[in-house]
Amino acid sequence: MIGKRAIAFDIGDKRIGVAISDPFNEYAMPCETYFRTRNFPEDVQAIARIAKERGAGVIVCGMPVNFDGSESIQTIKTQEFIEALKSATELPVELEDERFTTMLARETQIAGGVKRGDRKKTIDSIAASYILESYLSRMKKRERAQRLANAEESE
């Protein structure tokens, strides 16, 4: 899966976590946390700019849903942001289920000894890295299945 890097965003009302893949799209690395300005168009442009500056070939956005998979108010807000982002960039925008990613990020911080007061600084970028890991894993499985199907066809 060599190509341009994938970038992931964990979109929240106050902060947007950012994670980027390695050049070979094998693993995800947390980057920065973007603090929203309360200016929706400005925030959308800033996120599009981050993707471009990082050399991304695809944007992956976490999609928040309830534990049962149903939509929430946050799902609708995130969908609105994603639609605006699609208009602000020429990059493809993919969606990835983000259930449990913030919980996993918090557990990672606790295990790493991050103090409670410092957790907000990095929790969103760590959650974005879990979103990206999930996406990369799904893409690798899809590629393997395609290779297998192609091999069976050529026999």
Main attributes of the structure:
single chain; 155 residues; alpha/beta; Nucleotidyltransferase, domain 5; 5-stranded mixed sheet; 4 helices; globular
Mean residue pLDDT: 89
Task: Fill in the CATH topology.
Answer: Nucleotidyltransferase, domain 5
SS class: alpha/beta
Total number of helical segments? 4
- Main pleated sheet: 5 strands, mixed
For CATH, the homologous superfamily is named as YqgF/RNase H-like domain
Give me the strand/helix succession.
EEEHEHEHH
Amount of beta strand: 15-25%
Question: What number of structural domains do the residues give?
Answer: 1
Helix content estimate: 40-55%
Radius of gyration equals 16 Å
The span between the termini is 24 Å
Number of strands: 5
Shape: globular
CATH secondary-structure class:
Alpha Beta
Any idea what the CATH architecture is?
A: 2-Layer Sandwich
Give unreliable regions as ranges.
none
Main sheet strand line-up: 3-2-1-4-5
